[in-house]
TrEMBL record:
This is Cell shape-determining protein MreC. Belongs to the MreC family. It holds the Pfam family MreC. Gene3D superfamilies: Rod shape-determining protein MreC, domain 1, Rod shape-determining protein MreC, domain 2. The keyword Ribonucleoprotein does not apply. InterPro entries: Cell/Rod_1, Cell/Rod_MreC_2, MreC, MreC_beta-barrel_core. Residues 113-268 form the Rod shape-determining protein MreC beta-barrel core domain. The lineage of its organism: Bacteria, Pseudomonadati, Bacteroidota, Cytophagia, Cytophagales. One of its GO terms (biological process) is regulation of cell shape. GO terms for cellular component: plasma membrane.
Amino acid sequence: MSQLLGLLNRAKYFLLFLFLELVSFYLIKKNNVQWDVTLFNSSNAVASRTMELSYGAKEYLHLKDENQSLAAENAVLREMMTAYQQSSETRPSYFYEADSLYADRFEFKIAKVVNSTTARTKNYVTIDKGTLDGIEPGMGVIGPKGVIGQVKSCSDHFSVVYSILHSDFRVSSEVVNKKLVENNETALGLCVWPGESRSLVEMNTVDKFKPVAVGDSVVTSSQNLIFPPNILVGNVSEVITPTNGAFHEISVKLATDFGGLTYVYVVQNRLSSEQQSLEEEALENE
């Protein structure tokens, strides 16, 4: 107790100063309306700024949940869009009409990228979903902007995907433009990475008499077992038509930035096993 009294005694002049300061502020506020309004506005500004910073911090902390929610919503929308595109043909229904099972054969599973490479000749992407989540080798993988690659191997909780930036990966693709649609033509080819820029692939075996121009879209074709049709691969950045060759030499700028992957969608084709087994049986019986 004596120590407390001694401390108060040593600080008595400082405490008196604080008391007089508070009294003076009170008297100024009471007798000066302009100062009172200024103080009120300043305190409001400080309070609103504090609330703004607090709200911003809460938003930032919830970004992960928001991103996961948006990715889940996108997966559902992709399934609906793919089913609609498969069941809606530009040709008359008497020519071709897909049944509902075939149109609804693709399912999308969300996964997060935990590792990736871009500087090798055979590049991979690792995702945080494995066999326990229904992922199997051979499934296609796409991102928010386009094609990523194909699942190579799986453990219980992870999967390794060889990306389109892999020298052994091929994806059946087609060029899309107004002239081809008007002529009811398809410009089919294979997209393959030449092992140079991580933003460019080559598209081979496109007939040189098919109209192809810089800026045309390149999408996955309908002759594809692992990807739904019309998934963007990229856009034509260069076209060379040799005089003696039979095919265009096409460079495609990839739609996906492989240096900034976060969430991807693993594509399951529910009818792939049936189609594969039938095709293998047909080959064996030749």
